[in-house]
What does this fold into?
Amino acid sequence: MTSQPPVPPSQFYTGIVAELYRHLSGEVFDPVPYARLIERYSRPALELGCGDGDPILDLIEQGYEVEGLDSSADKLARCRVAAAERSLEVVLHESTFESMDLGRRYRSIYFAGATFNLIPTNEGAEAALARIAAHLEPGGAVLIPLFVLAAAAPDSEASAKEQADSDDRSWLLHWHTKEAFAEMAARAGLQVIHVFEQSSSEFTFLLTPAG
It folds into this structure.
């Protein structure tokens, strides 16, 4: 039986999935680490995988210049509504990480949470890193949280299913060892500043443009 390809985020995070994702995932991001990144490497900043506004709206409310990017039109619509409810102005871009071309560079770029693991292939991950490198100003930095399943083999993939609107939507989670990710980042034009290890299966890369 031929396996079905993963549903792209732009199609997966629609309708009720977009509405309920934050409640189902239980993720609430503390804006402090991202504020520290911006304070150290300056602005403008770009939040990748901004979803419906966490933590980008908190950061904008605190006076930081942050733009957001997500491939889900439904989530971006929810972010705009949330911003309007808080009387905030927000600049949002609809694009995948692998194809983003925003016409400007940023001093600080970050993923809030391990969204990078949703890129289902090494080729896509390396393309995303190359686009990130192209959008960083010299001396800027990107923060990328990652995780590896405890029982996973290096560089393996796993799939999981969600059900919404009476349809099965499956997607892949893809993980990388620290060594493999660092090599991939180097090929994309990024060099490692530091790797923060939260646990044996969770770590965060801080990267800057090579050279």
In short: The helical segments are 9-12, 15-25, 32-41, 56-61, 73-85, 122-135, 178-187.
